[in-house]
TrEMBL record:
Name of the protein: Protein root UVB sensitive 5 isoform X4
Top-level lineage group: Eukaryota
Gene name of the record: LOC107798679
Amino acid sequence: MPFSLQFNYPIFSTSCSHQLKLHNSIRNQPFKFLCTSPQSEEAAKDSSGENGNGHVILVEKYRNGTSKRYIIDNDSEIKMFLEEHVPATTGSQHLEIPVTELSWLPKVIKDFVLPAGFPDTVTDDYLDYMLLQFPTNVTGWICHTLVTSSLLKAVGVGSFSGTSAAASAAASAAAIRWVSKDGIGAVGRFFIGGRFGNLFDDDPKQWRLYADFIGSAGSIFDLCTPLYPSYFLPLASLGNLAKAVARGLKDPSFRVIQNHFAIAGNLGDVAAKEEVWEVAAELVGLALGILALDTPGISKSYPTLALTWLSVRILHLWFRYQSLSVLQFNTINLKRARILVNSHVLHCTVPGIDECNRMESILLWQRFLRPRIIFEVSLEDMLDRGKYKSMIKQLLNLYKEEKYFLVVNQQKPRDFEVFVSFKEGATSLSVLRSVWQTYWLYQNWGWSDNIFDRLEQSLVELKHRFPDLLQQLIEAGWDTNNLSLKVPKEMSIEELPAL
């Protein structure tokens, strides 16, 4: 049974399943011990709510199992308790578990190798396919390694007969070094796919352009190998690593773009024809490259060759930017949502698909856009630490009809910044509503010294004007049924009814 002891000292928390954990992020609070046992959420709520000492009004849940409980006692004072979930280690854990849920797989690995939201976000045959694809790819790369060795011997690096053991060993070592260069590059793709896989759906334009910048950096390492031939392997490996990272960004981004083109469900046909365009461009580029290498001024002068490469690469990046700029997505991601709601707040109109896509900044990161929106912030951090207990009650009442909490950061009066956290059950529409409220506050800040008066007025405006925004989006051709506005999943807030 959970229990707590209070003293007037700085806080830290423990999880009493033979574990101690220091919690440094909470300061200026009473000293609290929280002991938990592996029991259900209902039992934990009963122990704190039905013993006459208070009841839980909010629970902040984190993906690592930790939670914060906000409890109001009989004196109407709010207390906060940190709780770490410790799963039971009984024999029942070894019962049969559905393979498709992969409950036995550590969470950090599951998040790295599987799509976000698995298994609900993919088809039932996804896992079976990937499990069979893995040995398929392993055997394919074994064959690639063996063939590479044969190719090197064909060009004079050792042979299958008539050579000494030392020569054969040198040939094998050369093949291993060459393949290792490819392996180091593969690590880059492995990291990108596992760590950033959920980003490409939201902003494929940005990541496709970033891929070309990173690929250009990789080519610079390759270009430096004649200057430092003794460092060929590390330079070539770094170049391969950068280009592999670029490929890890390029491939998933372009698949999203291809899917955007295939409005008739003809993704395979679109991809095949794209391959035709790419191969045609490759043949023309190779021919022009060979002609350039036959030019004495380039083939005999390294500075001329490097300058020519730099000029062509800049031209390549410019063409890439232009090609991405003409894309007209009718889905609403966070960047386009900012443009749309800002126009609606200021002018009561929304730009069309073509105009909005032209206004979208491809290069700029979200963190550099203004006003700044920070998602997944604890309520304790949202509010003034010295007054958060009294302010939480106001916040609960203010956002009782919304699926999120939003406040303006009062610690940075010069840089307008808002904190947003989502309740359980929040959807992409909740994200869009929070963005609209943010921009209304940004454009109307300063008319009152009371922050809650401003928040209340912004919610009144949101309630009255948001339906008009949706109607205008539909009339302009925007896809409001498939918003590319993901609700962050690292933290959610469960709001419990008052007793």
